[in-house]
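Ligand: zinc ion. Inputs:
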Amino acid sequence: MITIENGKVLYGEGMDAIKANVVIEDDKIIEITGGKVKGGKKIDAKGCIVAPAFINSHVHIGDSIACDVGDGKTIAEIVKPPNGLKHRILEESKPEEIINSMKRSMNDMLASGTSTFVDFREGGLEGICLLEEASEDIQIRKIVLGRDNSFFDPDVGKGEIKSITKNLLKSCDGIGLSGFGEIRDEVVALIAKICEKHGKISAIHTAEYEKLQEDSIKATGKSEVQRAVESDLNALIHVTAPVGDDLKLIGDSGSSVVSCPRSNGTLSVGIPPISDMLKHKINVLLGTDNIMFNSPNMLREMEYALKVTRGYYREYFSPAEIFKMATVNAANAFDLNTGCIKEESTADIIIVKEFSGNSILSLINRTEPKDIVGLITEGNIVYIN
Ligand SMILES: [Zn+2]
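Predicted complex:
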């Protein structure tokens, strides 16, 4: 048993700051109490915030090998499969170099308070094995969304797609597709259906920038969002450039959107309309996207997301909404019993120095990785500084 004592706890899905002690048994939070707790290990969190650890809902961890390469080039030149700059670098790199760079990124995530990440894993089964090997000794939860190159081959039949997908899903948590420009709609719909049937996650990059939407409408008469919603995918990545009724469609469909504002900024494609997404009752999550151009640091992502949203709308936007995007919204989307501190939740917790009376703003505005005193995942102490 572990008790985190004397801290200010961000409690429940509402993230209400309360003075309390958090009691952990095995992997679960079993009690949150104002009273003294006897026995077990004690962690003194005086002067600290006790908060849910972060869930980074979208990364491409394999690209850790190519940090800051290609700046100023177009998005297609950098990341479009199969001949983007990153694909060429990955091809030229040795597996151990890729593994070491992935390890570095996972340790960066732990150091900045992330307990869980959702990875778009390329390279089929081999790519999944590479991440398995890299994460062997690292106490981080990974949700692996695989893909196979055959998905993008116009000549591959439905039967083959079906068997490849089913086989891939034995080794991962779902499928992450690069985008509508590279894959037939019937293949997307088929993959989403197989994922659904097997209780797995389906996701795709959608409406990342305006030209993709224009091309989609020209080619099919539908926006990328319309196509994604029709295919019934669980998570749409980006939706930075919605058109027409796109946001209403997503809101009605129940799919989640993973917003990656720093990535959109880096690639000069816009600012995601987060406030409008929430108005349409969309479950919005936050991801740091490609490690080529972003550190996988959710503290940085939250701060950018909050401020760019206020700047974009020229009005107040609640920091608690941003904090939920980095925690409980993601847990709800991926069916994880975590993302908030309450009884019976999985104990994924950070203990962080408090710098102001406003706990959530203290986290978003002022906290650096060095200020994270401790990280607990699944009831295990990953570190206490
Ligand atoms: Zn991405």
